[in-house]
C-alpha cells in the first residue's frame, strides 16, 4: 500500500511523466467546463442556498488552485473530508463505545472495590465467627465448671450436715424438756445412726474419729435415757400392783386386771421404742445390749410380781386337791398354762421378737409347778394312778392345750 506522501510525490511528477498534447489539453478544458456546469444529483439537497454555498465553496477553492500540486492537495483534502463524512457514524460509535468502555471500567473498579470490601467483610465475619465460637466454647466450659462447682458444693454441704448435726443433737439431748416420749426422739435416734454410719465409712475425713467418738457418746446417752424410761416405767407399774407387805395375792379371774391391766396400759409407748431398738439390734452392739437390758428388766419385774402369787395360787390348788392327785395335776397344769399364755401375750405387748429372757421367765414359773407336783408324784405307789397322770400330761396338756393353743 502506498502512503499519502508517496501518492503526492507521484502526482507531482505526473505532468513530466505524462505530458499532454495540445489536443488533450483542449479536451481537458472542455471536460472541465462541462463538469463545472453539471447539474446537482437528485439525492443531494436542491435548495438554492445549499447548492449556492457548495458551488461557491468549490468555485473559491478551484480558483485558488494554480498548479497540479495544489490540485492534488485539494483532492486529498476532499477525499479526507469525504472519508471523514463517511466515517462520522463510526467515529461517533467508537466515541460511544469509548464512553461505554470508560463506564465499564468504572463499574469494574467499583466491582473490584466491592469484592475487596466483601473479602474484608468475609475475613471479619470469619474472625467474628471464630471469636464467637471461642466465646461460646468458653461459656460452655464455664457452665460446665459452674455445674461441677455447684455439684461439689452440694456434695460438700450434704456431707457437712452430718458433722454440723453434732451440736444440734447435743443441744437437744441436754435440754431438760427433751425426753424419750417426745415426738422428735425417734427421728433424733435415726439421725444419730446415719451420722455414725457416715462417719465410720469416711474415717479418712479430717477429725472424723473425734466426731465418731462424740456421736457414740450421744448415742449412749440417748440409749441410757431409753433404758431409764423403760426400767422406771416397769418398776412404777410393778410397785403400783404389788400387794402390800404381809399380804399375799392369788392369781384368779378377778385379779387379772391387777396383774395385767396396768402393764398393758403402759405397753404402747414402750413397744414403740422397743420396735426401733429391735430393728437396730442386728446392726449395732449398743442397741443389742439395750434390748437385752430392757428384756431383763421386764422379766425381773414380772418375776417379782408373779413368783409369790404363783406360789400362793399353787398352794391353794394343792390344798383343794390334796386327796386327788389326778385332779391336782390337772388343775395345776391348767393353771400354769393360763399363766404362761397370759405372760406370753403380755410380753408381745412390749416387744416384737422372742427372747431367751421370756423363755427363762416361763421356765422359772413352770419349775414352781414342778416343785409342787414332784413330792406328790414320787409318793404315788399305784401304777394305775401314775398311768392316769401320764395320760393327763400327754393327752390333755400336751396334745389338747399346748398344741391347740400354741403355748
Q: Label the overall shape.
A: rod-shaped
Report the portion of residues in β strands. Answer: under 5%
Question: Which stretches are low in confidence, meaning pLDDT under 50 for 5 or more residues running?
Answer: none
Task: Assign the structural class, choosing from mainly alpha, mainly beta, alpha/beta, alpha+beta, or little secondary structure.
Answer: mainly alpha
Averaging pLDDT over every residue, what do you get?
83
Terminal-residue CA separation: 152 Å
Helix content: over 70%
Gyration radius, rounded: 70 Å
The biggest sheet amounts to: none
By DSSP, the count of extended strands is 0
Order of helices and strands: HHHHHHHHHHHHH
Notable traits:
rod-shaped, mainly alpha
Question: What is the strand and helix layout of this fold?
Answer:
Layout: H1 4-12, H2 14-17, H3 22-36, H4 48-63, H5 68-86, H6 88-173, H7 185-201, H8 208-241, H9 256-280, H10 285-320, H11 325-350, H12 356-378, H13 383-405
Helix pairs in contact: 1-5, 6-7, 6-8, 7-8, 8-9, 8-10, 9-10, 9-11, 10-11, 10-12, 11-12, 11-13
